[in-house]
């Protein structure tokens, strides 16, 4: 006995296609299945013709319709399975989220930690010391020095001293960059705009050297005039020029040089400081002091550079050099001794740290780019200053320079001194560990 199935006429299918194409095609398939079931015992063939024409070639018979249905079902199941696998793999592969405006730091006990602006920890990698933690320009990677100085690890025959490391916080991938094992970090790192190169301040056989490392080839070359020591290689925000300081070896006669983006063709730029001021360290501080504390800072528009100059008594002042005409203007008054100056991303303000002789601690100041509106915005700052990408807040540390402090903190504050917040802190005894460093950077452009 044949199954009873409802047969569709060509007119019914044609009307369905005109009203709703998807339903009409479904009707064609359903009608084909019905006919296949009805004639399966006899395997009779009956052509299915295009519903919008009364004639034409046969395009599918009852058996083909059944096969189409089976293939379609299998294809849908396979596609669903593949999509599920892809989604699951993406979820498993994705690490803690890298939030816009993330803050990365290397705490004194070692490793690299990333938090968001509210202090939520996004991830922690490695357990070795990390110095000069620096975000790439696209905000997606971190570079830092990792390891320890040779004298402190001389009893470890397997130690390789310091290594330059690149970390992708989104995947947790940590990639070492080859540098000579005798080199030691001597100041900040900076990424090129395209993320293919990193400039470093290092000590080579006891002498300071500014170097550039090509991450693709792994090659490293020295910057600055041949035969001279160099420090503070700094790209402009546009990435088209490089500024640095250089001196004849051991002369302490530092001079400003401007070069192409790759460091080629360095040309000395005359800087006429007022009497009693010069670039250099008259206080006799050694090691990383000048390279870390007296940065060269380009204005966001690339038209000016901040220079920190010193007097014979060791006091300091910030000057603004106009690149076009070479004019020099004092920015800070004698009431402050600025260090670690940082230009805000919008170009309106400069933040810096100044020493308070009465309290024997540093304070955080902000001054407008034209030298007006000097104000103290926070107390007890120490080793770093950085701006939020939108210039709304300033990042700094507290506690590390105070040997009586019971904890160290990473803090943020608005440029007017309001809304002081602590985004990270940990207890620490600094009474015998004045050499500890806390390296921090605020993510710039978004990943």
Q: If you had to describe this structure to a student in words, what would you say it looks like?
A:
The chain has 447 residues and is of the alpha+beta class. It is built from 4 helices and 28 strands. It has helices spanning 10-19, 21-39, 62-93, 289-293, and strands at residues 103-106, 112-115, 121-125, 130-135, 142-146, 163-168, 173-177, 184-191, 197-204, 207-214, 220-222, 228-235, 241-248, 255-260, 267-269, 297-298, 304-310, 316-322, 328-330, 338-343, 349-356, 361-368, 375-381, 385-387, 393-398, 407-414, 421-427, 439-442. It has a 4-stranded antiparallel β-sheet with strand order 3-2-1-28, with no helix packed on it. It has a 4-stranded antiparallel β-sheet with strand order 4-5-6-7, with no helix packed on it. A 4-stranded antiparallel β-sheet has the order 8-9-10-11. A hairpin with a 4-residue loop joins strand 21 (349-356) and strand 22. It is globular. The N and C termini lie far apart (69 Å). Residues 1-5, 21-25, 40-60, 90-95, 150-159 and 282-288 have low confidence and may be disordered.
């Amino acid at each position: 006995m044949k199954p009873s199935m409802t047969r569709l006429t060509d007119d019914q299918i044609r009307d369905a296609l005109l009203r709703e194409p998807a339903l009409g095609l479904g009707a064609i398939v359903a009608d084909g299945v019905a006919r296949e079931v009805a004639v399966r015992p006899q395997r009779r063939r009956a052509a299915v013709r295009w519903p919008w024409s009364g004639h034409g070639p046969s395009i599918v018979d009852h058996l083909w319709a059944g096969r189409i249905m089976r293939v379609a079902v299998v294809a849908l199941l396979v596609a669903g399975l593949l999509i599920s696998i892809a989604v699951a793999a993406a979820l498993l592969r994705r690490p803690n989220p890298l939030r816009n405006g993330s803050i990365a730091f290397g705490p004194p006990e070692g490793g690299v930690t990333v938090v968001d602006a509210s202090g939520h920890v996004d991830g922690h990698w490695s357990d070795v010391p990390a110095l000069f933690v620096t975000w790439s320009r696209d905000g997606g990677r971190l570079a830092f020095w990792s390891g320890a100085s040779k004298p402190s690890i001389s009893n470890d025959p397997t130690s390789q001293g310091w290594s330059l490391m690149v970390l992708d916080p989104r995947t947790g991938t940590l990639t070492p960059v080859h540098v000579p094992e005798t080199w030691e970090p001597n100041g900040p790192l900076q990424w090129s705009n395209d993320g293919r190169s990193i400039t470093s301040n290092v000590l080579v056989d006891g002498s300071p050297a500014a170097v550039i490392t090509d991450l693709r080839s792994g090659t490293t070359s020295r910057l600055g005039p041949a035969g001279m020591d160099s420090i503070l290689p700094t790209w402009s925000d546009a990435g088209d020029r490089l500024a640095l300081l250089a001196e004849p070896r051991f002369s302490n006669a530092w001079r400003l040089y401007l070069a192409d983006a790759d460091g080629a063709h360095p040309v000395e730029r005359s800087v006429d400081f007022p009497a009693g001021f010069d670039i250099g360290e008259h206080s006799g501080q050694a090691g990383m002091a000048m390279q870390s504390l007296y940065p060269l800072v380009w204005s966001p528009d690339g038209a000016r550079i901040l220079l920190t100059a010193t007097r014979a008594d060791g006091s300091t002042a910030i000057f603004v050099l106009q690149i076009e005409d070479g004019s020099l203007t004092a920015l800070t008054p004698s009431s402050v001794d600025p260090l670690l100056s940082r230009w805000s991303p919008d170009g309106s303000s400069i933040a810096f740290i100044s020493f308070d002789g009465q309290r024997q601690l540093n304070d955080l100041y902000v001054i407008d780019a034209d030298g007006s509106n000097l104000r103290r915005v926070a107390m007890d700052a120490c080793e770093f200053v950085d701006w939020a990408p939108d210039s709304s807040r300033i990042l700094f540390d507290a506690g590390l320079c105070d040997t009586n402090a019971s904890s160290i903190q990473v803090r943020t504050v608005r440029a007017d001194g309001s809304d002081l917040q602590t985004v990270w802190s940990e207890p620490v005894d600094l009474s015998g560990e004045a050499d500890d460093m806390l390296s921090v950077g605020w993510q710039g452009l978004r990943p």
